[in-house]
Amino acid sequence: MNLNYGALVGLDLPKQLQSYTDRDTMLFALSAGIGDDPVDPRQLQFVYERQLVAMPAMAHILAMASDWLFDPANGIDLKTLLHVESGLSMSGRLPPAGTVSSRLRITRVTDRGAGKGAVLAFERAIANEQTNEAICTVSGTFLLRGNGGFGGPAEPRSVRPQIPQRLPDTNCTLPTSPRSALLYRLNQDRNPIHVDPEVAARAGFPRPILHGACTYAVAMHALLAAVCDYETDRVKTFNVRFSAPLFPGETVRTDFWETEPGRYLFQSRCLDRDVVVLDDGLAEVR
Fold this sequence. Notes:
Layout: H1 5-9, E1 16-20, H2 22-31, H3 41-44, H4 67-70, E2 81-90, E3 98-111, E4 118-128, E5 134-144, E6 170-175, H5 180-184, H6 197-202, H7 212-226, E7 235-242, E8 251-260, E9 263-270, E10 275-285
Antiparallel strand pairs: 1-3, 2-5, 2-7, 3-4, 4-5, 6-8, 7-10, 8-9, 9-10
């Protein structure tokens, strides 16, 4: 499929608004596995309306414009699209309920060559619509496997973070529930590959896979538990590369290496299959 480079780099989308309630905030936290210890007051603050706190990872599902992906004029081959990176940079606090706004900006469209795909990167600045205060910037990268060779600029050489050759400074092991995908899909992502065994089989999986965004949220839960004592205001940056799918019910261990004060490289591994599911992780905390 012929990617419309000019249309994508010049994309000007209107501001998106979304209102959400405390119920949405609690559902998101539950779908990420928070609340497994229902008497732990540090976890209870995410799932109980009294003094409710929102997980920063929830910003990824709020006020997201997606119509441009499905617009045939842009030439994106959706059948071969992979979400390969997600990032978050916090500048404020995500309220537990309210209305937020965001505007999407495409930051990079590059060509790996025919048969190798194209790369599309975007950012969304999210703000509190009531106060106009900045909350965070969400980023993401798609690998468009069917769109290579469109004649655009080449992919720049990137330097992957190097995990130190030593044991991690801390880690956190968290189980996922066999129902994780059934819960997480209620956070506005009803892709049938996460619930329908026949759809998953056609995509080459033995059963439905967990949303990558849910795996991301589980890893952030690990950061909150192992590094931040569940204090969300300490989260500054949380960036990952998706390296393999996770299946609902599997257990994830996230290892953290502190390379300088407040800066952690991390990696999340599925213990059931001994495979890295999140790689090149970077977390910065206050």
